[in-house]
Design a protein that fits this description.
CATH topology of one domain: Acetylcholine Binding Protein, Chain: A
Family: Belongs to the ligand-gated ion channel (TC 1.A.9) family. Gamma-aminobutyric acid receptor (TC 1.A.9.5) subfamily.
Helix content: 25-40%
Largest sheet: 7 strands, mixed
GO cellular component, one term: chloride channel complex
Structural class: alpha+beta
Number of helices: 9
CATH class of one domain: Mainly Beta
Membrane topology: Multi-pass membrane protein
GO molecular function, one term: ligand-gated monoatomic anion channel activity
Strand content: 15-25%
Order of helices and strands: EEEEEEEEEEEHHHHHHHHEH
Keywords: Cell membrane, Chloride, Chloride channel, Disulfide bond, Glycoprotein, Ion channel, Ion transport, Ligand-gated ion channel, Membrane, Postsynaptic cell membrane, Receptor, Signal, Synapse, Transmembrane, Transmembrane helix, Transport
CATH architecture of one domain: Distorted Sandwich
Number of strands: 12
CATH superfamily of one domain: Neurotransmitter-gated ion-channel ligand-binding domain
Length: about 475
Amino acid sequence: MYVLSISSLSEVKMDFTLDFYFRQFWTDPRLAYKKRTGVETLSVGSEFIKNIWVPDTFFVNEKQSYFHIATTSNEFIRIHYSGSITRSIRLTITASCPMNLQYFPMDRQLCHIEIESCNVLCVWHVSGVGYTMRDIRYHWKDGVNSVGMSNEVQLPQFRVLGHRQRATVVTLTTVGYTMRDIRYKWNEGPNSVGVSSEVSLPQFKVLGHRQRAMEISLTTGNYSRLACEIQFVRSMGYYLIQIYIPSGLIVIISWVSFWLNRNATPARVALGVTTVLTMTTLMSSTNAALPKISYVKSIDVYLGTCFVMVFASLLEYATVGYMAKRIQMRKQRFVAIQKIASEKKIPVDCPPVGDPHTLSKMGTLSRCPPGRPSEVHDPKAHSKGGTLENTINGGRSGAEEENPGPPPHILHPGKDISKLLGMTPSDIDKYSRIVFPVCFVCFNLMYWIIYLHVSDVVADDLVLLEEDK
């Protein structure tokens, strides 16, 4: 078997197409002839194939295949005087290749072609008159074990839960060749499979190949089977240029809003929404070209993280705007209280009563009413439901105001009204300028180190293509 080219490897259809020379060797003593000088082998055309026995070889996982007939049938038969026969034919086959896309696009796929003798021949009786139940009755030959299913059966969006059989089915006559009749083997050992050095694919490169000989047990007997496995490595260039780099740049663009003025609401909101929508479009277009599988791929992890970071930058501005609004409301309440205090002619900067030295030094003795203590509003009091009047009066009743007690000390706000939870809106922007890039860089380091290491798996006993060359 010599592979000429591999034209496609589809993740959506889970198959691959290859063009190769397929050569079979067997011995038929009936075709032996007496050796003559200069005539050790006879080469005959493909039309002679109808007159001799040939192995009923077929490809187990074949989806579609065809012979090449331009300009004539690409096939020849060579008969040795000892009765050994060589048949060479050029084929193009599309075979199934179940893929695990967990590490996509850093994955490595192992596709195989299985060769076996056609083990069942179905004999159908065609008649113009149908048979009723009196003439023929169908039943499952082996009861509940009559239906079997390969453990390799899989679908991108489904998993096979089980199967069952119902009343009847046609009885087949099996006349295939078992291990007692025919046995397949690789004629040249590890060199039986060759791959052309010109084999190339746009998104893959052929890492190597290996061959195996197996014995398959079916209900009709044991059968000889050969398998040729080819391992592919996906090229990352396309996905780096079209997906990874653009998504990383979109995340970086979302950080620009941290340097914009927080009052520039249209600019920051437009930037955040645009980056979120762009990431959504990129994720949708990427998954549209892939099968709808139920597990998470490595590219989903990267794009999902980028989407979360872009969305987080939009939420960061929402947090900044909310904090700025709350702080502004607190300032407005404090200004209103100061205004009421000034209307009542209670200077908020008067020192306590009983300190004439300070009053004369500041020159405010004439402005501060005698015997009238000065108070400063505590914003907490108003926020807890107290009225402005009670706040200015320090919460005292009218009787207490007429007979003031000892002068209290100057009251200062319990905390800075320009901060909320100990931070200002500008602090959040400053922290975000550092936290977001650091988190994204750390994620990239972990992502590439882990996935490149985990996906770097080479099949055992693989004949590397470089060594084969």
